[in-house]
Amino acid sequence: MKKFLCLLLILSGFRTAAQVSMTVQLPPAGVLLKSQLWNIMLASAAGRSMDVRVTMRLSDARTNQPILTGISRSLTVNKGARQLQAADLMPVHYEYFSSTIDRSANGLLPAGNYLACYSLYIEGDKSGTQPGEDCMPFTVEPVSPPLLNSPADKSELSFSLPQFTWLPPAPLNMFSDLNYDVTLTEVHDHQSPAEAIQQNIPVLRAPGLRNIFMNYPSGGVSLDTGTTYAWSVTARNGNLFVAQTETWTFRVKGADKVIDSAKGAYVQLRKELDGTVVRCGESIQVSYVNETGDSTARYELLALDYTSRTIFTGTISLKRGSNHLDIPLGYRRGLDGNKIYLFRLLNGRNEYWQMKFIRVRKD
């Protein structure tokens, strides 16, 4: 008789665990709030109430690295179905394994590919038949992926050191550590641009960029005038993949034109860069028309390499109308001879007026 009662208790434990089911309701793709991870339907066919907890483990679907875990408060489940949301399960105890996750209760999940695994624990059930783990993949996508800007698709450039620019993904508040990888490669015969990016050895690969522009390095592989080049940008949040742009192409039809800037010769600043490179000595001599009437303006000297680092910033006085400006170079740190740099002036309309130059040192 005792053996029969023990067997009955064990079988009732199996039925209890089997009579509680959990269905997670996540959209397969789109923008997702962290609180939406707890949209869950619980259904109980048991004849008594039970106290349960829900655990969630969030991982990177590509690398299987854990990103976030959470465990809910104890919740009483009665017979029937019940739709749960984050408020029903609060407080949820989180443990974070990635700095890219917003720690606020209603923060946006960063864009990426994820695997969410859920477990339901029935408190006081000693049958050893707790419901198993249920995993489901989903993708968080930005509303807008990064968009290429220049050089324009299928354009022909008159200079061999192009500047690449793009627009960031949106919304920006989805990302806490946004960075970019730029890939440039040749397009071979009978290849599409997308195939070239995926299959060919890159002519240039610049990872971890923080700016939304990159200048082709003067010390890089020379771009051939008879070759079609493809380029694309991959956005990441930390190490998490966010989105990739389309693939655009361009060709180079001519080399940079080099102008010697002699004493008294001033080069006109332009809003759009072209293939002109100015050869300078101890100073930069530029002409600028001050249409905004600014009394002063900030300027920058930037390295045209994969770092795009700022070498120097300063302020210069202006008068309304035409200005002839002399910017001394002296022996500024990081300004090496025979390398290409960018001078740009920022006016009151937040417009950049700029030119490329080479610093030529006297022997």
Task: Explain what the structure shows.
By secondary structure, the chain is mainly β. 8% of the residues lie in helices and 46% in strands. It contains three helices and 28 strands. It has helices at 2-18, 86-89, 193-199; strands at residues 20-24, 29-30, 40-44, 50-60, 66-71, 75-77, 80-84, 93-96, 112-122, 134-140, 147-150, 155-157, 163-167, 178-186, 204-209, 213-215, 228-237, 240-244, 248-252, 257-260, 267-268, 276-280, 283-290, 296-303, 310-317, 321-328, 340-346, 352-359. Strands 2, 4, 5, 6, 8, 9 and 10 form a seven-stranded mixed β-sheet that branches. The longest helix is centred in the N-terminal third of the chain and has 17 residues, at 2-18.
User: Based on CA inertia axes, which overall geometry fits?
Assistant: elongated
What is the averaged pLDDT score? 81
Q: N- to C-terminal separation?
A: 107 Å
- The tally of helices reads 3
Strand fraction: over 45%
Which descriptors would you attach to this protein?
363 residues, mainly beta, 8% helix, elongated, disordered N terminus
Please give a quick description of this structure.
By secondary structure, the chain is mainly β. It has helices at residues 2-18, 86-89, 193-199, and strands at residues 20-24, 29-30, 40-44, 50-60, 66-71, 75-77, 80-84, 93-96, 112-122, 134-140, 147-150, 155-157, 163-167, 178-186, 204-209, 213-215, 228-237, 240-244, 248-252, 257-260, 267-268, 276-280, 283-290, 296-303, 310-317, 321-328, 340-346, 352-359. Strands 2, 4, 5, 6, 8, 9 and 10 form a 7-stranded mixed beta sheet that branches.
